[in-house]
Amino acid sequence: QVQVEESGGHLVQPGGSLRLSCVTSGFTFSQYAMGWYRQPPGKARELVAWIGLDSVGANYADSVSGRFGISKDDDRNTLYLQMNSLKTEDTAMYYCRRLNINDPWGRGTQVTVSS
Q: What local confidence, expressed as pLDDT, does residue 101 receive?
């Protein structure tokens, strides 16, 4: 049974930083591309960062490029999202998921950027 548990979300001021974590189980983590998604209040969920097998090929949505960094630790079955220079528009619930696979969503972790 595939499970993911996101954590690390918090209230932060604009310009601040956060590091999100996603601990996974139920599949061979190293063999899958992974993505971070977010859903702002009242808006659709969107893919913001994704990373391929063996940490090859990190990609980002234009809205976060240059500010966010995605990484994975295959030994710990964990996906990370380093978020820097946070903006109010980054406020959202953040989720992780295997890329292109219709897994159930985790509970997510709330990131709120506000002064």
A: 94
